[in-house]
């Protein structure tokens, strides 16, 4: 028997011993959030309640909820794992994820809050022909959200099978279905109000859990960070290189280019993620939107700083073999670290492992709820109310459509999640960022700041960015031709980079410009004057 | 054209007419608000993106420099990374201060006048 096998079994045994405790904590979270959902559902009466939580949240509450929406399992488990295995290169992610918030703060949050109502499409279609632009905005919103959702659901499957020792196909499908049903319930009953409270609870749990583990790690090293880094470098077997950039991305010229591509997509993608954008509608005005972004920057920044302690702590206290045996991408490094900090065979270790695992579940559940809300809102408000019903639908009909869309999107996600349960879909999160940066961000910026921008420009930038980003990924090593690809056994990958951003983002911007200068229609200058005055002053804001 | 813009929600003041919007848009007061916003936000955006790209490029192509030890096991790469956090916090604080001092009062004045139905 190989040493790796022993480790897998060890991890599985450790996990199954703690199963009752993990399940209990997880059930507690589910019950508490279901209570919140039902309570919020009773207070959800009109469309502004369902889509925007009645616009009644405070800047701090929304800042917490934004953080909850943003800190996905990918950032919690993924970054800690990447640092644990690749050292410094794992940390590079968090910097892109954080700096990105400045784009949202300086250019997007306030104008969007001032001039839109419920969705990203409100702003994009403001001075354009409604039906084509709303169709495009809805399409892009749903594509971005579904990619993101799939990655989260598959992540839930992997995590649960590891932590609870469920390895059978039926078990994994059951987990995906459970996550899907819960997110349908959260969103269709609780709407934005319920989802926002779930995000806040999750953010507090995640921050609390991270502070606890960070404190325990630092305590082990007498709060000497240099010591922590040194031990991590030594224990990783990679020496000083572990603390320098390059272990993951420095291998070849192509991987370096890939890292630049990823970096650009991370920084420009955040301000184009629909589930983040709709959060700015939950506060009373643009000033509160600005303050909520500031809270989010503080909370998310603090969180990412702590992932340094988590990742290097795992590298310092656990052997690389054990981390890799538990999950080849390091996704279970954080829960393993909790176990080791408490003591592998002690009750305290079991409690810590269960707590961190439950926090990870809560994280996934809350993020999928946010994504589902964004896509069902866009379907109901952009596509159903404004395209299919041409603006003639009543509020009641619109909210009913949103609730039904939630069930539909949930069902599709369960189906896709179950089909993709054994595929490596973690790369889809980066793809969601790339599509958001290539299709949504150019269109948002042109709409808000470029007087001449036309309907044709908007359509070309959304569809151009979307098609090129998705197309390049389809032919990249994320999908085929790589041992870690979704379909490792076939090879139709002619595009060498895993992230399409370096091509697709400039392309999205270029298409928006080209579509505009080549369009035969005159830009609606009056309507732009109206949009600009509204977006900068908040006149007539909803 | 885009005639079916969403109607104002029930609790809102009256929405000014398209003519009023055009008029305000042409006014010196609004021009100043727009300049004050754009001349702050646009260069700063270019600046922080360039600063971030510098960090990405150095991480990629200046491994030796980034690996230089500063204190104990803490090297230039770490200092640079933490500096990105610090500048992000500082820029957020700086923009918010600018907005509160220079943008909010102007925006508020225009909004009040327009919604007041002057």
Q: What's the SSE blueprint?
A:
The complex is a heterodimer of chains A (542) and B (118).
Chain A: H1 3-17, H2 19-43, H3 47-52, H4 59-70, H5 73-86, H6 88-115, H7 120-124, H8 130-163, H9 169-220, H10 225-236, H11 253-269, H12 274-277, H13 286-317, H14 320-326, H15 333-342, H16 347-388, H17 395-419, H18 427-449, H19 455-474, H20 501-517, H21 525-537
Chain B: H1 18-26, H2 28-61, H3 63-66, E1 69-71, E2 74-75, H4 76-115
Helix pairs in contact in B: 2-4
Low-confidence stretches of chain B: 1-11
Q: Largest chain interface and its two residue counts?
A: A-B, 71 and 64 residues
Class per helix and strand makeup of chain A: mainly alpha
The percent range for strand residues of chain A is: under 5%
- Helix content bin of chain B: over 70%
Number of helices of chain B: 4
Count of helix runs of chain A: 21
Q: Structural class per helix/strand content of chain B?
A: mainly alpha
Count of strand segments of chain A: 0
| Rg over alpha carbons of chain A | 23 Å
Give helix % range of chain A. over 70%
What's the average pLDDT of chain B? 89
Give the strand order, joined by hyphens, for the main sheet of chain B.
1-2
Reading the helices and strands of chain B in chain order gives HHHEEH
* Mean of residue pLDDT values of chain A: 91
Gross morphology of chain B is elongated
């Amino acid at each position: 028997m190989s040493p790796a096998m022993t480790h897998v079994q060890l991890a599985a045994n450790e996990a199954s011993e703690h199963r009752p405790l993990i399940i209990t904590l997880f059930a507690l979270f589910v019950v508490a959030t279901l209570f919140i959902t039902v309570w919020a559902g009773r207070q959800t009466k009109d469309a502004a309640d369902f889509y925007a939580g009645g616009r009644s949240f405070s800047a701090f509450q929304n800042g917490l909820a934004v953080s909850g929406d943003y800190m996905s399992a990918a950032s919690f488990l993924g970054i800690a794992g990447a640092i644990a295995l690749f050292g410094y290169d794992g940390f590079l992610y968090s910097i892109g994820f954080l700096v990105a918030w400045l784009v949202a703060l300086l250019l997007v949050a306030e104008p969007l809050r001032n001039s839109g109502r419920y969705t990203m499409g409100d702003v994009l279609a403001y001075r354009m022909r409604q039906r084509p632009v709303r169709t495009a905005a809805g399409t892009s919103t749903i594509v971005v959200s579904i990619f993101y959702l799939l990655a989260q659901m598959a992540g839930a499957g992997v995590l649960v099978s590891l932590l609870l020792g469920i390895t059978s196909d039926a078990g994994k499908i059951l987990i995906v279905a459970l996550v899907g049903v819960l997110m349908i319930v959260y969103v269709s009953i609780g709407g934005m109000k319920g989802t926002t409270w779930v995000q806040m609870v999750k953010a507090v749990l995640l921050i609390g859990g991270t502070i606890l583990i960070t404190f325990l790690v630092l305590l082990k090293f007498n709060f000497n960070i240099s010591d922590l880094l040194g031990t991590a470098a030594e224990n990783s077997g990679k020496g000083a290189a572990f603390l320098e950039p390059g272990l993951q991305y420095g291998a070849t010229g192509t991987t370096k280019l890939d890292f630049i591509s990823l970096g650009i997509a991370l920084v420009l993608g955040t301000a184009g993620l629909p589930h983040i954008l709709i959060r700015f509608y939950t506060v009373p005005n643009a000033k509160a939107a600005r303050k909520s972004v500031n809270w989010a920057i503080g909370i998310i920044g603090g969180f990412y700083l702590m992932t340094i302690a988590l990742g290097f702590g795992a590298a310092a206290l656990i052997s690389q073999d054990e981390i890799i045996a538990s999950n080849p991408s390091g996704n279970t490094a954080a829960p393993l670290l909790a176990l080791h900090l408490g003591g592998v065979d002690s009750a305290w270790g079991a409690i810590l492992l269960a707590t961190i695992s439950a926090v990870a579940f809560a994280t996934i559940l809350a993020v999928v709820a946010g994504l589902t809300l964004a896509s069902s809102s866009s379907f109901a408000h952009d596509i159903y109310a404004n395209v299919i019903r041409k603006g003639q639908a009543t509020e009641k009909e619109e909210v009913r459509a949103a609730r039904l869309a939630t069930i539909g999107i949930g069902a599709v996600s369960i189906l896709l999640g179950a089909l993709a349960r054994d595929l490596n879909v973690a790369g889809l999160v980066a793809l969601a960022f790339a599509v958001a940066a290539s299709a949504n961000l150019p269109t948002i910026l042109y709409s808000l700041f470029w007087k001449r921008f036309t309907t044709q420009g908007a359509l070309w930038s959304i569809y151009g960015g979307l098609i090129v980003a998705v197309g390049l990924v389809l032919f990249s090593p994320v999908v085929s031709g790589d041992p870690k690809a979704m379909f490792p056994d076939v090879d139709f990958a002619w595009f060498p980079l895993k992230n399409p951003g370096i091509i697709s983002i400039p392309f999205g911007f270029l298409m928006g410009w080209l579509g505009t200068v080549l369009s035969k229609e005159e830009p609606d200058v009056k309507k732009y004057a109206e949009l600009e005055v509204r977006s900068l002053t908040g006149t007539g804001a909803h | 054209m885009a005639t079916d813009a969403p109607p104002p929600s029930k609790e809102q003041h009256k929405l000014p007419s398209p003519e009023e919007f055009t008029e305000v848009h042409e006014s010196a007061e609004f021009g100043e608000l727009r300049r004050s916003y754009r001349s702050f936000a646009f260069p700063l955006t270019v600046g922080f993106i360039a600063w971030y790209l510098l960090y990405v490029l150095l991480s990629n192509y200046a491994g030796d420099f980034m690996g230089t030890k500063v204190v104990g096991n803490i090297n230039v790469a770490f200092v640079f990374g933490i500096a990105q956090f610090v500048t992000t916090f500082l820029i957020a604080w700086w923009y918010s201060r600018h907005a509160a001092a220079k943008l909010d009062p102007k925006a508020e004045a225009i909004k009040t006048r327009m919604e007041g139905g002057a």
